[in-house]
Description:
Blueprint: H1 10-18, H2 38-51, H3 77-85, E1 92-94, E2 97-99, H4 108-122
Antiparallel strand pairs: 1-2
Helix pairs in contact: 2-3
Amino acid sequence: EDVEAGQWCAHPVSWASQNGIVNGIAEGIFDPHASVTREQIAVIFSRYASTRGIDTSADTQALNTYPDGEKVSTWAQEAMAWAISAGLISGSKEYHEIRLVPQNSATRGQVAAIMMRFIRQVLPETE
């Protein structure tokens, strides 16, 4: 409802929604101007990988290797564990240690790094 036809992101949001890659933040609400969190990025890449036939199942115990692993939202745990296992997400140096900081906004640099890793490490599985 909040992505009007003709907006610059209308077609990509519609495509991603129709393909089960994004659900938005509530029924009919996408919030296209909001920042994206690190756990949301993990879910987006996991769902996209699934559309390409890539197995994204993962042991959520991988989250326990980070001091804040228990802070990953329930709905994002398997995707975050997969992103860690696939080498897409390796944590962020926070408070003098490597943490997941799952609810923090992903920086543009972090998203670029995750995308590059996804293209180089995950997509070749489908070729």
